[in-house]
User: Fold this.
Amino acid sequence: MTKQLDPKEIYFLKKSIWFMLILFLGSNVVTVLINTLLNQFLISPEFQETVKVVQSDPIILATSNILPFPLIVLVLAIYLRPIFKEMKLAELSNNSLVKLINIPIYFSYLAALGWIIGTISFQSQIMIRGFSDNWHLIIESTLLTLCMAVVSFVLSFYLLDYFQRSLLVPRLFTGSEFNEISDGIRPNLKQRFLIYIITTSALPGFITFRLLQIFNNDGNNVYRQNLTYELIFMFSIIGLIIFIITLFLTNSIRSPLDKMKLQAEQIKNGNFSKIMLVDTRDEIGDLSATMNSMTVSLAEKELIKDTFGRMVDPSVRDYLLGGNMNLGGEQSEAVILFSDLAGFTSLSENRDPAEVVALLNRYFGLMSDCVSHNGGIVNKFIGDAILAVFGMPIPQSSPADSALQCAIAMQEAGKILNEELQSEGLPLMHTRIGIHKGSVIAGNIGSHSRMEYTVIGDTVNTASRLESACKKLNVGILLSDSVVASLNQVYRLKKIGSLKLKGKSQAIPAFTVSI
Assistant:
């Protein structure tokens, strides 16, 4: 996927990226302030003095507190360079779009990584250089700083994610474009819950634990005993309970959402039969029930649409459902094909009506396929006759060729059908076809309460008269000179001569085709 950008979008995107960098920097500044404040209360005075001594060493200060963040800025510059480069071309490739999507989570990882690198560097040098051998205090200080890494990650992620979803995406994307971008790191619901739980429990849990340790005072408390192991056990149990509750809470929300996603995919694929089980009575349950109702409604509409498509040609159905339901019509050039069955009247007199209907349906099925395969539409069935239109309402490059090829296909299909009917001891069916090109009026005829999409005009009458003339001339297909003049391909045509058709004042040159 690629995204074209106009000048206003380019300007907005540049400003947005710079603003997100400011948010990223601001979240780290806030984290530093929180860390400085908590150090005053949660880290023992003895270890604070050790920290001051260590920070006075310029090498440790540079490698632990200063160096990680310039390196991170360099990584961010390399990361953002392709986006700025492509903005000059006013087009973002899929790779740059993925980078844009990943900014919240990628920046957040880098923020946490800076704290982790600084912590490892700082604490390891305290031990290696012998500034302190008190493992208890080193571990506490390390845990506090790692909690700051979590705070930095969460602040960066939620600030950047909120800005991206609320301001950036609505200005640059429409509909589901943003969601359709391939790849990209997008935390799912479970991961978001875990981030939330870590945010609300890691740092508060550590602060509470440290305050209880201060209260414990190595056994010099009101209970006159050291409660360190009891505190560790208690917080481990609390952490486990929180984790289990998180899993159940996540599943209670994610499970029905997964069901809705599956049902939406089924609807997208045209399957309206799947109805999900609603097993909750909250807002998610209401949403699931609404989706079930929507599925039933769509199934009913699809049934109506399918039924409508059986009553009229699917092309006409789509044309009408596209908003062309007003009474009236439009004049246009079209090729009309009119076919009829020879001897159908006598066949009907000697057969049971149910048998006649079955034969007709069998015949119409084959003939309709020939029409649709050649780009035409079956406008209507008139007894045993078929009125087909080529060139409207859906334009064709060469409707005359399509109509003639359809007529040839209908005759070939009729031969195969007759072989089957003969083997079954049933009467044979012979098709006569007339084709004419000219001006017609196509549109909705009738009243506001009941209407029919049809074509009318002298062109339709002429095609019908050509079909009738087939019987007298003993041919299967007759086409007018207007059709022949419009053909783009070469056929084995034979000129019959000028025919004086019923209802026509002038003779019409007619042709037939050898099959």
The chain has a mean pLDDT of 78.
